[in-house]
Each structure stands twice: as structure tokens, then as C-alpha cells.
Amino acid sequence: PGVQNVAVLGATGSIGTATAEVLAHLNRVDDRYRWRLWAASGHHNVKGLTDLARDAARFGGPPERLVFSDPTVQSSLRNLEGPLQATEQRWGPEELVGAASHPEVDVVVAAIVGRAGLESTLAAVESGKRVALANKETLVVAGGLVQERSRATGAQLLPVDSEHSAIWQCIADSPNRVRRLILTASGGPFRTATAAQMEAATPETALAHPTWQMGRKISIDSATMMNKALEIIEARWLFDLPADQIEVVVHPQSIIHSMVEFEDGSVLAQLSPPDMRLPIQYALTHPRRLPCEAPPLQRNRRWDLSLEPVDLERFPALDLGFQVARVGGTAGAVVNAANEVAVGLFLNDQIRFTDIVTVCRKIMENHTFEERPTLSTLLRLDRWAREEATECAAGVG
Ligand code: NDP
Ligand code: MG
């Protein structure tokens, strides 16, 4: 069999560990490729990353390289023993770029959370890699730039986000015109909450997602529905469709992962249980479908699949998402930065749950918009928006 060398950036996170499971599984069921975990990165979680690497036999042999992107963990690194002796350890954020663009790497799984994933994802695109993209914030911040560069280098962006994977699977290579993308949203933990309950939400209640197990930041994003806002923007760039051809519906069971309406009115949907191993695996093996460890849908009992409209009053993030998707340019970078700061402050009990989106909207309205920003403009605005958001939050908190 051939070999696929995979760099998993953010290997210690929720998507990263699910990806490791998928690689181990593929090594059991795929007779075309050996799936080698060539490089893996973590940030703070030194033990998580070295334990993962120790499981080397499941990942096609010991990894070539481990990257600790947080340079301060250098002192806690130990010499790797036994089969990992040949594994290089590197630290510092620049090493993410080095791994993402290394000539030996075939596929980069971009699973870092937030804007911190931008440089490495962009480096993978610049090197013309196949990029399995979980890190949606990169497209929110710099979607125009990423798409322009991937057209130039031939890099492929393979969606991992379940909604975008669903849309990708529904469109396949259809020559037909898409009329609308219909993103489904679970509605998160506050789908049926009152506005007053949402104002009083604590980090604990906001983190308790009804259908998905995920990292902390995306769990809060799901509760505010900022996650869906980010996904509207992500879809706008991934599928190159204007915002007015994107819709959101609430689907509490998280089984219909999204839908596509074609020109003749026919709507195709992709269904599977809420388990990220399926979209991760499909991004890696596309266009092949192989057996997957995600459990099959249970069909031997009553099956309720419901759809309901979104409540734009209680979830103002959605309107913000559509607005950003419409104007593009620098809007995504500032909203994303404000959101990252506000989510952190909320998790630290420094602002109320409902302040998160208020802060994002203020920052967006106060920024100096540019339609075709360079990367350095985007990075400058990202820093600016973080400072503004911190200040603005001090005012509301
Ligand atoms: P987690 O918080 O579980 O994991 C985040 C990963 O990023 C960890 O490996 C963490 O390292 C690393 N990391 C954190 N900060 C930095 C930094 N400053 N520089 C470099 N690496 C860093 O997040 P998720 O796995 O839930 O999410 C990852 C991405 O995937 C997000 O963009 C999210 O929106 C997207 N996504 C997630 C889904 C899910 O089901 N979880 C579904 C769809 C999309 P360490 O832990 O070692 O500190
Ligand atoms: Mg999603």
C-alpha cells in the first residue's frame, strides 16, 4: 500500500484526538494506504501529546516530529524513550508552520482552536497541501485570502466541520446549480431558554451541549450561536456563494447535518449520528467511503427529525454572521477576535453570557472597514479588536 503522511495540528484537542482514532482505524480497514501520523502538535498538554505519540504502532509507526506550540513548556519536556527516541521534539509557534509545509506531509489536519491556527493553515495552503479544515476561524478571519492562495497553489480545502462536510457530500461533483445552502443548528443548550435565563447563564450551563462533546470555546460559541455565525461565513468562503444563498434552520437532534437546495427545488440532506469521526474520516479518504467507527443511525425505533425556524431575537449572533458574510473584507477578523476575547472573559465570570455578542457587534461597528485587506492588515486588526474588546467588556461587566 501507499503511505499518507498526516500532520495533525491541535492533536491534543477534541478534534485532534478524534482524528488520531480515525487514523488508527484507517490503518485497520484501508488496504490502499498506511496512514502515518507524521507530525502532531499540542500547546499546553505535554502529557497528552507524548502519550498519543507513544501509541505509535496504531499510527503507522513513531511520528517524525512532535511540536509544542507553547514555547514555555520547553522546560517540562522529557527525553522521549524507547520507540520514540527517533521522534524530534520542537517548540514554538513557528514550528507549526514548519510541520504544515514540510515536503513529506501529504495531508494537514487543521484542528487548532481560534485565530492561533491561521498561520499554519495558511502555510499548508501555500505549500499546496490537502487541508482537512476544522479550524473554521481561519476562514472567518482570512477567507478571501485563503481561497485566493489555494486557487494559486492548488491546495485543497476539505471541510471537517460537520455542516460543511454534509454540504460537500450533497453537492458532490454535481454540475447543477445550487440555489441555497441550508445549515442546520442544534440550537445549543439555550434553544428553549428565555431571554432572562440566557442573561443569567453560567459557564457551566453554557458548556453543557445537548448533542455534541466539544472543546470549551466552540461549546460557548454553540450556546450563543456564534458558532453558526462563524459557519455561515465559513460556508460563504468554502462554497463561494453569497450570504443571501445561505440559510439556517434549527434541528435539535443533530442528525441532519445540513442540506442543499438545487435550482429545481430538490433538497438533498446528509444524515448521520453526531460523531465527528465520520466527517474527519471523509475529509481524509474522499472520494472513497470506508467503514467508519461512528455508530450507524438507529432506525428500529420511532425517529423524530424536526426542523424549526431560528429565533433571531434571542440569538443576535446570527444576524451578525450574515452581515459579516455579506460584507467580507476585514469584518470577519474583528468579529472573530472580539468573540475569542469575550468568550474567555465569560468563562472567567467577567462578563455576562449575553454580553458576548454585544461586544462583538460594537467592535465590528467601530472598526475601519477595508474590502481587500492584506494578511498584515488582518493581523493588525485582530490585535486591535482584542484590545478594544477587552476595554469594551470592562464597560459592560
Ligand atoms: P479543543 O479546545 O478541544 O482543542 C484545541 C487544540 O488547539 C488543542 O490541541 C490545543 O492544545 C491547541 N491550542 C490551543 N491554543 C493554541 C495556541 N494558541 N496555539 C496552538 N495550538 C493551540 O478544540 P476543538 O478540538 O473542539 O476545536 C478545534 C477546532 O475545530 C476549532 O476551530 C473548532 O471550531 C473546530 N471544530 C470543532 C468541532 C468539535 O466537535 N470539537 C466540530 C467542528 C469544528 P493543548 O490542548 O495542548 O493546549
Ligand atoms: Mg459545525
3D architecture notes:
With 397 residues, this protein is of the alpha/beta class. The chain contains 15 helices and eleven strands. The strands form two sheets. Strands 4-3-2-1-5-6-7 form a seven-stranded parallel sheet, with helices on both faces. It has a four-stranded mixed sheet with strand order 9-8-10-11, covered by helices on one side. The longest helix is centred in the C-terminal third of the chain and has 22 residues, at 375-396. The radius of gyration is 20 Å and the shape is globular. The mean pLDDT is 95. The structure holds NADPH dihydro-nicotinamide-adenine-dinucleotide phosphate and magnesium ion.
**How would you classify the helix and strand content by structural class?**
alpha/beta
Runs in which pLDDT lies below 50 for 5 or more consecutive residues are none
Mean pLDDT: 95
Strands of the widest sheet, in order across it, are: 4-3-2-1-5-6-7
Overall outline: globular
Distance between the termini: 58 Å
Hetero compounds = NADPH dihydro-nicotinamide-adenine-dinucleotide phosphate, magnesium ion
| H/E topology pattern | EHEHEEHEHEHEHEHHHHEEEHHHHH
Put simply, the count of helices is: 15
Q: What is the helical fraction, as a range of percent?
A: 40-55%
